[in-house]
Amino acid sequence: QVQLVESGGGLVQPGGSLRLSCAASGIIFSDYRMAWYRQAPGKQRELVARVISDGRTNYADSVKGRFTISRDNAKNTAYLQMNSLKPEDTAVYYCNADSPYRLGPLWGQGTQVTVSS
């Protein structure tokens, strides 16, 4: 079964940290670019960070220097380490996978991240 399963969301105070995980199954993980998107209430879904198979990354300007995306191809898992969290980081975070060998991207079910005191 092809699926992406996120975990690690929750409630954290401003300045705190969270680590999100995205476990993939049913795919050849190394064929896929992995990314994290987020969607806040009333806003469009936006790209947060992406990592390609060789480990190269890119980030949204709003999270540069605070978030780190990584992947472990042996574990079929992608991660998003989020530090120095701000209230404006509050959103549902979605894992995304896309590949030139597959028509259309894969999405996880989303995990809520709330940054509040």
Structure commentary:
This protein is mostly beta strands and 117 residues long. Helices cover 0% and strands 50% of the residues. The chain has no helices and 11 strands. The strands form 2 sheets. Strands 2, 4, 5, 6, 9, 10 and 11 form a 7-stranded mixed beta sheet that branches. It has a 4-stranded antiparallel beta sheet with strand order 1-3-8-7, with no helix packed on it. Strand 5 (46-51) and strand 6 form a beta hairpin.
Short description:
The chain has strands at 3-7, 10-12, 18-25, 33-39, 46-51, 57-59, 67-72, 77-82, 91-98, 106-107, 111-115.
SSE order and pairing:
Blueprint: E1 3-7, E2 10-12, E3 18-25, E4 33-39, E5 46-51, E6 57-59, E7 67-72, E8 77-82, E9 91-98, E10 106-107, E11 111-115
Number of helices: 0
Distance between the termini: 39 Å
The largest β sheet comes out as: 7 strands, mixed
Q: What is the alpha-carbon Rg in Å?
A: 14 Å
What portion of the residues fall into strands of 2 or more residues? over 45%
The general outline is: globular
Low-confidence stretches: none
Question: What is the strand tally?
Answer: 11
Helix content: under 10%
Structural class: mainly beta
What are the secondary-structure elements, in order, as H or E? EEEEEEEEEEE
Global mean pLDDT: 96
Structure keywords:
four-stranded antiparallel sheet, mainly beta, seven-stranded mixed sheet, 117 residues, globular
